[in-house]
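Duplicate of #3305? Posting structure anyway:
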């Protein structure tokens, strides 16, 4: 009986260790996928506007996101990305969500680059998240290029915000809100 109890305890302990190792492998895999996607996104931004490479290098930090969205009257988008502190080289895995309402229809995949103007803005973005709102306009793109009023740079008081539309078509006029926050599972 005692041998059976010992065997049961050993089996449970082994299961917990194996489960933890599998969870760590899955976490590392997801982190690697996000790092690869954000690196590819950065290269697209640098190709679209070579001046961005210098701006990113000289900044206190930056964030890069890949997002996917659909809209028909109501819209939504979500994505993942990284915030990087250039001084410490620390990366923080982040999530992003957007909701919109208005006269709109479309589907798209886009990439966002946020270059922070000071360390406080970067740290607030990482620690507290960030909420932004504004209006959308007609935008279309393919092959990493973007056209329309939504393309290019939007200036925010403590950061510069750039967007590339990878593919898809969105048209209409809408009010949108975007929220960024730390990914609690990947950090």
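Output from current build:
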């Amino acid at each position: 009986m005692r041998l059976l109890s010992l065997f049961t305890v050993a089996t449970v302990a082994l299961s917990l260790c194996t489960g933890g190792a599998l969870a760590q492998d899955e976490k590392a895999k997801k982190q690697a996928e996000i790092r690869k996607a954000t690196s590819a996104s950065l290269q697209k931004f640098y190709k679209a506007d070579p001046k961005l490479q210098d701006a990113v290098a000289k900044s206190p930090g930056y964030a890069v996101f890949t997002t996917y969205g659909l809209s028909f009257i109501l819209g939504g988008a979500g994505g993942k990305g990284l915030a990087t502190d250039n001084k410490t080289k620390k990366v923080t895995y982040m999530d992003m969500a957007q909701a919109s309402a208005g006269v709109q229809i479309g589907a798209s995949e886009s990439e966002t680059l946020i270059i922070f103007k000071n360390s406080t803005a970067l740290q607030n973005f990482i620690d507290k998240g960030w909420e932004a709102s504004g209006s959308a306009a007609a935008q279309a793109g393919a092959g990493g290029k973007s056209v329309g009023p939504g393309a290019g740079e939007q200036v925010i008081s403590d950061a510069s915000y750039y967007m590339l539309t990878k593919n898809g078509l969105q048209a209409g006029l809408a009010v949108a809100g975007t929220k960024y926050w730390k990914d609690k599972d990947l950090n």
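Confirmed duplicate; merging threads. The beta strands are 61-85, 91-116, 130-136, 139-142, 145-147, 152-156, 159-182. The mean pLDDT is 77.
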